[in-house]
Amino acid sequence: MELESFLSELRERIGSQSVFSEGIELQEAAHNTLALDRKIVAVIRPADTPGVVLAVQAANAHGVPLYPISRGRNIGYGSKAPVVDGCAVLDLSGMNAIREYDPVLGSVVVEPGVSQRQLHAFLTEHSAPYIMDATGAGLDASILGNTLEGGFGHTPYGNHREHFCDAEVVLGDGTLLETGRFPGLGPDLKGLFVQSNFGVVTAVRIDLMPRPAHYESFIVRVDADAGLEKLTERLRMLRQEGVVASCVHMANATRYLVSSRPCPPEFAHTVITSPDARRLMSTKLLKVGLWNAAGGLYGLPGSVAAAKRHMRKMFNGLGEVRFFSNKRLGLLMEATARLGNLGLQIGRDLNQSLVSFQHIHELMQGVPTDEPYRNIRWRVSEHGDLGLIWFSPALDATGDAARLAVDLARPLFRKQGFEMPLTLTLVTPNRIVGIFNIAFDQRDEAQCKRAQELYFTLKERFAAQGIEPYRSAILGMEDLEYNGAEKKDVVLARLKNALDPNGIIAPGRYAIKG
């Protein structure tokens, strides 16, 4: 590695203001919630695609590996930190142009630095007849970054792998590629750049969802843990039938608690179970189940009304289903706020629960929020102390698969002394992504060790059942194994050699090596 020559060339070609080899920039790039130490040799911040081309060319010439990030908000999976030591972080957050907006066909072309906050504000300012799909990653999360991690959100456009095209990519050898729109002539190449390290994506076209004539959110409450299987099966049928088109998130009571408020003082030194969480979250008039599902209904008023009737029949005898229009939720919040102002505790409790749900209700309308991020600290007072690792297995959308995931994980969380907040999301009608979060205090070395042990044990136990993660933290990422060695060791290795022959881009990412 000829680091000084690399830095000198880039200072000359893209400007010294874009090149950092020491100081706070390197510290911030290395910080992550996984309790991992990472050695970073530089931070490079190109202003545009030609600057990225120059950085990749210089990296090839001087043997310096680059680790591209969009805005670095990959919290719980690695933040800005590279998979391996010795990389220069290629920070694309300054490339934040919305290059194009098509008000007829409903799409935008965004650069890596475009945040959820920025795109939502842009659509509002233009009175667009479209909404974006929003994730719970926060206002400042990158649209492009989440897409390239294969992320998902809440609306019918929530499967982000499916709703982008037209990727502009600087390949590892410095070639500038445009994948184009599909259907089109030849293979659709965009998927090569999701969860890979073949190049640096500098722009993509994102589909926007037409603003629905009518929208209502729903919550399904199931009080018995044993109801998970039937809840999963019925939600899958509703997705397969097209009655529910949105992603549907099934969460245990612990997830609801962790996502909505800080850890109660009486549980400061005690692990909270789902029955504990249900008791803490429930009021006399608004109860939380051991399992709770949330999704959205979109369309003409008549079609939404028909979907509601069908859902009531589907869940009769299993759990309670409630529906909320914007008007109904607003009236309920006003009424409970008035009761709270009169000094009635039940009014305060109800209002707090409704406020917590309001953010979910709005996310399903494409309105991003920082609420999940504000509450993610859970047991620490400062974000800098937050330890967080996501474990995210991909499962068939069956009741048996959902139960297997719970039964595999629950004793492992209990053994290591952590709560088990869990969301099971039907991202497609037939596939579920489970999101387990391991939350800990980075100031406590013992907790850090237990959290990492739990993560690796979860990976091992699920892999033994043939279950792969839908997405991986950088913790141990360079050693990931795929179901079928030929995918990793033959196909992906050949692509890496062809598109990034010197192995310059993101070494270790998703274990793709030449």
Automatic annotation (TrEMBL):
GO molecular function: D-lactate dehydrogenase (cytochrome) activity; D-lactate dehydrogenase (NAD+) activity; FAD binding
InterPro entries, alphabetized: Cytok_DH_C_sf (IPR016170), FAD-bd_PCMH (IPR016166), FAD-bd_PCMH-like_sf (IPR036318), FAD-bd_PCMH_sub1 (IPR016167), FAD-bd_PCMH_sub2 (IPR016169), FAD-linked_Oxase-like_C (IPR016164), Oxid_FAD_bind_N (IPR006094), Vanillyl_alc_oxidase_C-sub2 (IPR016171)
Sorted UniProt keywords: FAD, Flavoprotein
Domain FAD-binding PCMH-type: residue ranges: 36-211
Pfam family, one: FAD_binding_4
SUPFAM superfamilies to which the protein is assigned, alphabetical: FAD-binding/transporter-associated domain-like, FAD-linked oxidases, C-terminal domain
GO biological process: lactate catabolic process
Transmembrane segments: none
Top-rank lineage group of the source organism: Bacteria
Stored PANTHER family: ARYL-ALCOHOL OXIDASE VANILLYL-ALCOHOL OXIDASE (AFU_ORTHOLOGUE AFUA_3G09500)-RELATED (PTHR11748:SF114), D-LACTATE DEHYDROGENASE (PTHR11748)
Name of the protein in its database record: FAD-binding oxidoreductase
Source organism of this protein record: Oceanidesulfovibrio indonesiensis
